Every structure is written in structure tokens, then in C-alpha cells.
Structures
1.
Amino acid sequence: MSSTSQTRGIFIAVEGIDGAGTTTFAHGIHTTLTASGLAVHRTAEPSSGPVGRLLRELLKSADTPDPAVYALLFAADRRHHWLSEILPNLQKGTWVITDRYVLSSLAYQGIDEDVTWVSHCNARAPLPGVTFFLDLPFHVAQARIHNRGGLRENLEDADFQEKVAQRYRDLSRTFGSSLVTLDASLPPQHLVRAALMELSVRGLLPG
């Protein structure tokens, strides 16, 4: 995994277990930065590309695919996502915010597969400038998923999610200085303010 130093926009990833509020947070950051006058593009993984669409169908299926299949498909989708959507926007000077990226694969597929192999699969996925990890207790996330109703995806199994939550925390301690952990039990507006403060401290926001 390489850096994004050759690009002009700022690349931000948002991570966390299902129910942590990554989509709400990404929307809040996007709205706030856009209101400040920045050009910002919001996206998500699985992407809207051909591999991403296949992944979304598999996530809804009754049978969970082999973890290695998921790892390879997510890595393929990520590479296509980077080339077709993320990089072109960054090169225009547009900020890009993605709801999930490499850390998701390391957390989810790294449970049943060798995490080093999963990392190698993502070697062509340049790392974001900042990754915001929304840390939320497993039982709170599960309550949120239950309250929102609807069908669960096959990776939202409670036992599996508990393992993912711990994996995220383990990874957050070794991922490097580009990762920022936020308390996802706080109200969304508080999280957005904390994120903006972090971006400002890092000198990423225009003066």
C-alpha cells in the first residue's frame, strides 16, 4: 500500500464496524467541508463499479462466500475504485471521502484469512492521508443495527461482528499516524467537529 503524495486533493477514509455510523459521519464531513467552499467528492465501498455491484449482491445472499473470495473481490473493487473514481478526483484537487477502504478488508477478511496475505492483495491501494476510525462498543452497534430494521447482510452476523470490533481495535494500534480514533458513541455533530479539528491540526484545511 502506497501513499497519495502524488495527488493534489486530500483523501479521507472512514472506518468502523457495522452500526458505528460511518455513513452518517462521512455525510457530515462532506456537507461541512463543501459548505466551507471546498470541492469534495463522497463515495463508498463496495463501489458502484462492476465488481462493487457483484459484492453488494453477494453481501445480501443467504450463503456467505469463502473469505478468500471476499478478500480478492474487495481488493479488485478497491483497485478499480481508485483508478476510475478516487484518483481522477484527487488529481483535480477535489477532496475524496470514502465510507470504508483498506482497513475494512484487514478487519473483516483478516479474521478468517492471513492478514498479511490480505494486505498484499491490497498492495495497489494507495493509503488515505487520514483514516477516521469510529470506535463503538459492539453491543451498542448491534442495538443500532437492530433498531434500524431490515434484512441483515451476511457479514453483520453478531458473533462475527464482535470479532471484527476487536480486530479494528487491534489494527488501530498499529496502523500508523494517519489513523485517528473517534468515540462513535458521541453525537454525529460532535464527531464532525472533532474530525475538522484534527484536519486543522494536521494543516490540511486551507487557512
2.
Amino acid sequence: MTTGTEPLISICTPVYNTEKYLKECVESLFSAKMAENCEFIFVDDCSTDSSPRILEEICSGHKNLRIKIIRHKKNSGVAVARNTALSNATGKFIIHIDSDDSVQPDFLEKLYTTAVETGADLVVCNNWRDFDTGTAGKQLVRALLAHEMLPTLWCKIARRSLFSDNGIFWKEGLNVGEDPVISVKLLYFSKKTVFIRDMLYNYKSYIGFVTKLKKLNELEQKALEFSEIEKFASEHGFLEYVSDLLELRRAEIRYDYLKSEKPFSFRKYSFLGNISLGLLCQKRPDFNKKTTLLLIRLVDAHHFFLANMMYFFYRVFLRSGGKQ
């Protein structure tokens, strides 16, 4: 293990049952430019597969690098794992990585160099839109909620002081949608955020921490995510500025739940209360199909029995090869 000077970057990686992808992830990090100037923090959240053994084997061959392997005594979820990694980080900058993904060789170098050269608190890569210089705070929060930038943490490098000075940490139990909540806080508190379009990160859709979640649990987590964002916006005086987008995202979640639950379940209509689905017709052109419009109108009018009947027969129609 390298000792001496303070690491420039702390790479924080929670690990849980990602044996199929872990080797590729870790080796891409260890072989990246600037790896010798970083510290690598892996938090194993009681994996039940061979992830711990794979991690030990790879790390044992890189004794020249700063590596910390921390094991939880009980499975606590990705939010707690990220907090554990963050609390053990000593680098000037922080990067959060998912253990089922990998990075490009210049991932660390590009993000760090950009942050230093521009004096940014936060640098975002893999971004498909350019923002005007000086765009900050609540404007960037609104852009994130409007799907104009990636809400994930793996595409961001942040000064560690951005976390410590503003008390940013993960809410225990919020294990789906935890990234947008933290991203909102980082974007809000960052005095200077820089966006680059370089595609430096290789994302995979496998999610080791939440593979066993049922759809309802996942959607309830998403609802909690936006409640946390709403609370933060209210505490910092910009709730009215983003309330329309929060309502739209809640309508998206409620509609997703309507489609995922059993056709004749009435319990599903209480999910997220009386959030109007009509917002989707106004703001999302892709929701303006005749069958979708009819379902939304029935639900918003509380004609739940008719909505159930319509959706049930519509699904039968699709399965028989019909087209909308």
C-alpha cells in the first residue's frame, strides 16, 4: 500500500453480489491513469456470492496502490455502504463508482484535471448538453429533474469538502434513487460546476443491491426519493421553482405503478394519493396515445372499475397480436 502524501482522489465503491462484473470494474480502476495518486475504498455489504474472494485476489496483486476493503457486519443497503466509504475517504476529491461498471483509461485523469484547471467544485462527464457558464444552484437542480443531465453519481467528481461542509450524506433505507437526491445537493451547493461531454464511464444495467426488490417497493423508493428532494428544496427556499417538475415525476411514478400492478387491484389507486395523471398528457407527448389518454382520464375521474376493465382488456388485446 502506498503511503505518504494525501491521495488526490478517493474512489468509493460499494460491493454486493456483483461477481460477474467485479473483476472488470476493479481492474479498469487500477489500470486507469492517475491510479497511483488515488485511494480505492471498497465496502462489501455482506455479499453472498464470490465477490469478497474476487476482490481480495485482485487487490493482493496491487500492493503499490492505496486500497481499503471494509466489510459490513450485516447487510445494510447501498445508502449505508456509500456513507461508510465516504466516512473513510481522505482524498481531496471524491468519485463514486458502481461495482458492476467499468471506466475508460482516462476517466480519473480527465475529471481531476478539469476540476483543478477550472477550479470547479463539481465536474460532470458523459453529459449530452452544454450549460452556460455560471449556471448553478437551483437552475441545475431543475435541469436534473427535467432529465437534461444524468442524475447518477458515477459521472461526477466532487471536492470532498462539498460533502463535509454541507453535511451531505445518504439517507439510510433509500436504496433506489439515492443518486438523484445526492446529486441535487451537490449541484445546489457547488459554487462552480463544469460539464464535459466526454464519455468516460461504462454503465451496465445490472443492479446488485436492488435485484430482489418488487416493483411496488422500487416505486415506493422512487416516491421517497422525490419527497427527500422536495424537503431539501423547501428547506433552501426554492420549492416553488421546481414543484412542477416534482409533480410531473410523481405522476410518472404513479402511472408506472398502475401498469405494473394486477389489473383488478384497487389498492394501486391510492399509491401517491391523488397525484393527477393529466400532467403527463400536458408535458409528455409520448403519453398522447388514445388508449393512454382514456386510461388517464378514467383514473383522474376516480372511475377505477372502468379503468381496470379497460386496462385488462387492452392487455389481452396486445397479447393477441393487436396494435394500438
3.
Amino acid sequence: MVLDPFTLLVITAAMAAASTLYLASEWRSVRERSLLLWSAGFAVVAVGSALALLRSSGFVFVGIWFSNGLLIVAHALFLAGVAAFRRTRLPRAWWLLAAVWLAMLWLPDGPWWSKAMLGVQSMLIAAITLRAGLLLRPQDAALSVGAAQLRFVLLAHGLFYLAKAASVVELDTFVNLASFRGVVIQVSLVEGVMAIMLLAMSMTGTERHRREERMAQIAALDPLTALDNRRALYLRAPALLRQASPARPGALLLMDIDNFKQVNDLHGHDAGDRLLITLSDLIRSVLPSGALAARLGGDEFVILLCDAPASAAQAVGQELREAFSRQARATFATPDPVSLSIGASLFDRPDAELSHWLKRADEALYASKRKGRDRMELDLPAPPGRPY
């Protein structure tokens, strides 16, 4: 098959239509607004490419300027999709670009009009596409592979249109818009086919990575309290434990609810769930920056503090214990008071695993239960030179 301009336009329309359907199907399963906007952008590309075929039949306005205008709309939808992906609002000033293009349509026809239209349209597409690529710059965290690929494709695509806009100074030499002839036309059509393929692939990869991240986050959360679960605690704790040193000791607080069974027996398991949620909310409210909190199961919770001497650990435990006791007493009446017992293991050495500190905190928790509950017991670090 000879890849003449007519054939390239047909391929472009077909690939854009396929990308529309593919991204729309992804949107049905993910429900991310960015996928819907990108799918709409490819749909507009498909319509514009189909209308561009009419230019060889003499419909110059529809086949050239209207179809090129749709190309501007498509890239605006791509930009809106990137903004939705980044959770960013675009300034309303971007709507002025549409006004610029509409104003160009009403300018009087003349020998310079085609050159000006091609230059303005190419500049508009370049500005929109480059802005979309710059929105994907790394910020707080590194970009995913899909997002990095999308950024590269958008920037390369925008730079191509910037070069295309510059080429209009030699319009008569390089371009014959009505008859599909000229170096710029040929190169632009080939680049368009490649851009559609690469954009669709990277857009899908971008949202797929985010979906996988979301699924991993859900798998790491306790479904009732939305704190980390046991698995997430064991994955994340080693990084905090390695930070421990005599200058920056850490603390592990293990806690459970005193007389929790009475709440379930007297008020039902829904009441017990509400009490667990209350405790998890209080834990979040006292959790310092950089700390971890997790629900081990049942009514057992863990807080892992970094850079926390004994006084800081006691302050966190005391605040949490008093706040929980007040709320529990005000919410549920039980024969024995519902309170919180805490055992804490303090450490200043990074060479022991989480299970070791959990065991020592569990022994301290047992001591707090044995001494009357509603209290906090500390297990201090071993002196230098002595085993744990």
C-alpha cells in the first residue's frame, strides 16, 4: 500500500476511532475523568481526519480550516485530561485561544490568509500541547513510567507543531494545502499517525499505573478503620526502625481496649465497630508527622514513632488514653469502664526486627493490664553493651 496523504488520513481516522473506543472502555472500568476527556479528544481527531478527506473534492473550508479547528479542540481536550489527571484547574484564559482562532476565520481573504491561518493554528496546537506536557513535570514524587512517556510524547508533539508554525514563512515552497502536496503536509501526516499511537498507549499506561497504585493502597488498609493493616505495617516499619539511634530513639506503642467485649455484648457489634473507628480517628489526631499507625486485628492497634524519646512517647500515649476514655464513657454505658491499656517499647538501635519490638511492647501491655488497666507501661531500651 502506498502511504499517500489520502491513505494516511484514513489510517489516522481509523486509529483515532480505535483509541476513542479503547480509552472509553478503560473509563468504564476506572471512571477517571481524564480517560473520558482523552477519549473525547481522539473522537474529535477521528471526525476531523474524516472531514479533511473532503479537501481533495474541493471543499476547502471544511476540509482544511474546519478540520484543523477540530484538531485544536482535540488538543484542548488532551490538555483538560492532563489537568484532570493532575487534579489541577486550568485558568479560564485558555478559552481565549478559541477566540483567536474564530477571529481568524472572519479576517478578509487574501494571498496571505492561508499562511496566517496555518501559522496561527500550528501555534495554538503547539501552545496547548506544550502546556499539557509541562503540567506533567515531576513535583512531590517521581512520575510513573506511563506519565513520563506521556510527558515526553506531548512535548515532542508540541515542538513539532512549533516547527510547523515556523515553516509557514516558506509556505509556497513547502506546502500546498488544497492538493495535499508539500514536505510539511507529508511529514505532518506521518507524525500525526505516530502521535496518535504513542499518545493512546501512554495515556492508558498513565491511568493504569494510578489504578494499580490505588489497588495497592486499598490492599494495605484495614477496611474498617482505614489505618494500615498488619501487612502494611511489616512492609513500612523497617524504614522507620533503621532511623533509630541513641540521638534519635524511637518508640512502639501497642494498645488494646479494656472491656471491649462488654460493648459488643451489651450494645451489639455495630457499636463495637464504632468504638474501633473512634479510636482510629483519635490515633490519627495525635499521630506526629512521619509516624506509622496500624490495626493489628481485633481491638489491637500499633503506633510506631520515630525521633521520640520516652517523654514524647508518654505524651502521645497519655493524650490518646485520656481522650479515648472520655469518649467511650460518654458513648457506651458498661458495668466496667471502657478504657485503653498501652505498652510501649523504646529503642535506640536499628538492628532488631519489628517482631522483636512488638514482643517487648506486648510484655509491657500485659504489665499494664496486670496493674489495673487504663494505664501505660514503658519498656526502656537496654543499656549499651547489654543484649536486648
4.
Amino acid sequence: MHTDINALFDALWQDYVEMTPSAAKIHQLLAQGDSIINDHIALRTFNIDKVNLSVLAKHFESLGYVACGDYNFEAKKLKAKHYEHPDNTQPKVFISELLVEEFSPQLQASIKDLVEQIDEAATTADNFLYSGRHWQLDSATYQALLAESEYAAWVAAFGYRANHFTVSINHLPGFETIEQVNDKLKLAGFTLNTAGGEVKGSPEVLLEQSSTMADKLDVQFKDSVQRIPSCFYEFALRYPKADGELYTGFVAASADKIFESTNNAN
């Protein structure tokens, strides 16, 4: 496991930008020469013991992160937790897991087969969180997973890596509102996720979020290459709580729609 938080996030970012070429362009577009503060990253997994949420979380807990919130996504059959570091300049971490047992026997068998191919030692290695796919996958299995759960298909195709990074609009010079960020992105030709509206959340729930639709990448399957959605970039504006401190949690109803940034609609 990493002993240096910055080294871990640098490695996650390098892998993410390879999966998400648009992120580097957006980074430049919004930064305008300044640095961008990352609000949080998100990771996806299955609730199978070898790779469940807590296995991923250990990589962050060993660096001082602590669990701060639990979330349920009933329609998508997911559970999630978010983690924060005592040094609040470090990004938050949002980890979700698919409740595999709530799906068809076929999906359960497919996922079990994928997870069985992972070497147990790989899950505690330094690079696990940005190590990608640890299994063979054919296009028929991918399509069958996709028919039941976009999330399951995404994890099967991309494995272990950041699903998205998030620009903290609170720390972004030159932008006051999330609408200004969205307008700048649209003007530059980027497609936003409109599920539940371009802006998810509100000042009332202390968090507004938006995101791009995922880039499309050519992915190598056992029997073919397919162009499918990879990762996306998110933007978050946080509002102060009654005590004046910025809200650090997440809003399940908004996160539910953010998950749809990797949907396979053309």
C-alpha cells in the first residue's frame, strides 16, 4: 500500500487521464494557468469479499482516511461510503460496490468468474487502485452484464481505477457558479450529463454537481475491440453549513444521476 497520499493520487490521475483524454483538456480550459483542487475521486467495485468496498478502503485508511458517510442506491443496487482525511486539503474518496446477490444468477456467475481470476496478493499491492482489469472478458459477457447493470459492465470492462475526478468549483479562480462552469464546457464542445438536469443538487442540500458524459475508448475484449464509455469529469460546488464550514458529504439523489455519466447511450 502507498505510504504517500500525493504519490497515490498522482498515479490515479495519470491512469485516469489515459482513460479520459478530455479531462486533460478540461483541466487546462478551467485552470487558466492556476492549479485545480480535486474535490473527490470515485471508485467502483463488487461486494464480493476479495474486492469489496472495505478492501479498496484499506488503501486509503492506511493513509489516515476515515469513513464519514453511508449511501444506498436502491434502484441501481449499490451501496457506497465516503472517506475524508484529517487534512481537509486532501481529496475526499467515494467508494461504491454492486450488491451482486440482488441480480440474476447469470450476472452473479459472471462476476464471480471475473473475481476468481484476481490474484489475492494484487488487492493489497501499491498499484491496485489504478491497476485496471485483472481478468479475461469477452464481448458477449460484457453485453450480458450491460443489459442488467451498466455499473457491472463498466467494472468488468475497466477494472480498478478512478471512475472520475472532481473539480472543486469553490477553489476555481474566475468562476462563481456551477452554471458558469457548465457554460464554459458546453461552449468548448463538451457534452454534459443531463440526467436529472445539468445541475444535480441545490444550495438547499448544500451541494451542486455536474459532470461530462464519459469519453469513448477502444477496449480490448478477448474476441474483439469495442468502443465503449470510459471515465468522466465531475464538477462540485459546496455550500457552508450553519457553522460556516463547507458541507463535505454527498447527496444520494444527485450521486444516483452522476452514475449515469458512463451510460452507453450514443
